[in-house]
Design goal:
Radius of gyration of chain B: 16 Å
Largest sheet of chain B: 5 strands, mixed
Number of helices of chain B: 5
Helix content of chain A: 25-40%
Number of domains of chain A: 2
CATH architecture of the largest domain in chain A: 2-Layer Sandwich
Shape of chain B: globular
CATH class of the largest domain in chain A: Alpha Beta
CATH topology of the largest domain in chain A: Uridine Diphospho-n-acetylenolpyruvylglucosamine Reductase, domain 3
Radius of gyration of chain A: 18 Å
Mean pLDDT of chain B: 94
Helix content of chain B: 25-40%
Strand content of chain B: 15-25%
Bound molecules: flavin-adenine dinucleotide, FE2/S2 (inorganic) cluster
Oligomer: heterodimer
Largest sheet of chain A: 5 strands, antiparallel
Order of helices and strands of chain B: EEHEEEHHHH
């Protein structure tokens, strides 16, 4: 790891101030993506501004169907929260499958979506739930937030403070885990909410998370795994790497989508 | 450089470290607690697992400065004098190790896992919970056996205590 200067922020305003003063500064939340990247010298910020001790970023609020999750909430906390489990068990299930217990104790929802790894789980949930990403400056619809591989709509120094969504009537998430890294080799989140059905796919698209519109149309007519029979997923815009070919991923999208719908209907 | 201070295995320690110093290196090199191992460069093997504020974390993926102000428990902090912790005793009894390199991380993960599952553990849960701990020798079989046995022994001891208290 290259040399770095560490600063611990006490509030969101303090963090924004600290990053402004830094040369090439980066926020660190759980550090479960950033520290490994720094160890491999794939990332080399001059300064780290630690958000882990900022109380405003923590916690889960559920009121009726309205859910707000603070950006600093860990995967383990999302997985274990009983109120969330009662209104949106699919998201608890998703969080419980991220990485391993040690990663879940540190990694945060805010860090995951700010990073927008094309194989990360949360981006699929945010897109399918039609979530709003709240920052210290504005509110951004998930649709506009995830803009490509490791790319988001966040401006320099902007802090994700929370995510907000209305719990859908039904939802399900299924992923085919890369057996070594546990990331999604393909993951599909389906949600049937007030404004229809959304199907979001992660780990497969060559431009990051995307919505499968033809599946959405079919499921809007009949919310059943069988409704997806006959829908062909094209390998044209799928990732191809040492883990899986584009054709294999295209097939996984179809399989994971069926399993996700079946889980939503359980 | 930053001054760090934390409670490690019940003792308050402090030191001055480069900000990029990983917690595992602070433990091993500054404090001489070499029971915590480093098995990989990619945050995947779990040989470095310690408890920070009561939770199992990978000490190779946390800076010492990030842990400043925290309470840390390492493998050296588990036994009570010459009395092994029940998880250590179970690993010994069930032959849960061969070369022993992964063992400190396995035992720290196991104690965390047992704490989070007071209702008890089954084999499938133990195997899933070991996602973040790699062993190159044992094939996991005896590690799983040892954790199940320790969980049962600790559950009984816990109930015994509760009864006595009641
Ligand atoms: C072994 C291992 C397995 C993993 N498996 C999975 C998996 O199966 N699925 C999965 O989805 N992920 C997986 N991850 C990644 C993990 O979920 C990370 O926790 C997550 O991607 C990043 O969250 P973090 O809080 O650790 O962020 P950090 O590493 O602290 O930060 C990541 C990036 O986001 C920025 N950032 C952090 N917080 C904010 C904020 N509030 N506002 C703006 N920017 C911010 C940082 O500057 C940095 O660029 C795995 C990681 C490891 C090490
Ligand atoms: S040394 Fe920490 S996970 Fe391998
Ligand atoms: S006992 Fe050798 S790596 Fe596990």
């Amino acid at each position: 790891m290259y040399s770095v200067s560490y600063h611990r922020a006490s509030s969101v305003a303090d963090a924004a101030k600290l990053i402004k003063k830094a040369g090439d500064g980066k926020y660190v939340s759980g550090g479960m993506t950033l520290i490994p990247a720094m160890k491999l010298r794939l990332a080399a910020p001059t300064d780290l501004v630690d958000l882990r001790h900022v109380p405003e970023l923590k916690g889960i609020k559920v009121s009726g169907k309205a859910v707000t999750i603070g950006a600093g909430t860990t995967h383990a906390e999302v997985a274990a929260n009983e109120k969330l489990k009662a209104v949106c068990p699919a998201l608890s299930h998703l969080a419980s499958m991220i990485g391993d217990p040690h990663v879940r104790h540190m990694g945060t929802i805010g860090g995951s979506i700010a990073n927008n790894d094309p194989a990360a789980d949360y981006p699929a949930a945010m897109l399918a739930l039609g979530a709003t990403i709240v920052t210290n400056k504005r509110e951004i619809a998930a649709e506009k937030f995830f803009t490509g591989l490791f790319e988001t709509a966040l401006k320099d120094g902007e802090i994700v403070t929370a995510v907000r969504f209305t719990a859908p009537a039904r939802a399900g998430y299924e992923k085919f885990r890369n057996p070594a890294s546990r990331y999604a080799m393909t993951g599909v989140f389906v949600a049937k909410g007030r404004d229809g059905v959304r199907v979001a796919v992660t780990g497969a698209g060559d431009d990051g998370v995307f919505r499968a519109r033809d599946m959405e149309a079919a499921l809007a007519k009949r919310f059943d795994a069988a409704a997806l029979d006959g829908i062909k997923v094209s390998p044209a815009n799928m990732m191809s790497d040492i883990h899986a070919s584009a054709e294999y991923r295209a097939n996984l999208v179809a399989v994971m989508a069926r399993r996700a719908v079946a889980r939503a209907n359980q | 450089m930053s001054d760090v201070s934390m409670v490690v295995n019940g003792r308050t320690v402090s030191g001055s470290v480069e900000d990029r110093t990983l917690l595992v290196h602070f433990l091993r090199e500054n404090l001489g607690l070499t029971g915590t191992h480093v098995g990989c460069d990619t945050s995947q093997c779990g040989a470095c697992v310690v408890h920070v504020d009561g939770k199992a974390v990978k000490s190779c993926t946390m800076l010492a400065v990030q842990a400043s102000g925290s309470t840390v428990v390492t493998i050296e902090g588990l036994a009570n004098g010459a009395d092994l912790h029940p998880v250590q005793a179970a690993f010994k009894e069930h032959h849960g190790l061969q070369c022993g390199f992964c063992t400190p991380g396995m035992i720290m993960s196991a104690t965390d896992m047992i704490r989070r599952h007071p209702e008890g553990l089954d084999e499938a849960t133990v195997r899933a919970e070991l996602d973040g701990n790699i062993c190159r020798c044992t094939g996991y079989h005896n590690i799983v056996k040892a954790i199940l046995a320790a969980s049962e022994a600790m559950g009984k001891a816990g109930k015994g205590k509760a009864k006595r208290a009641a």
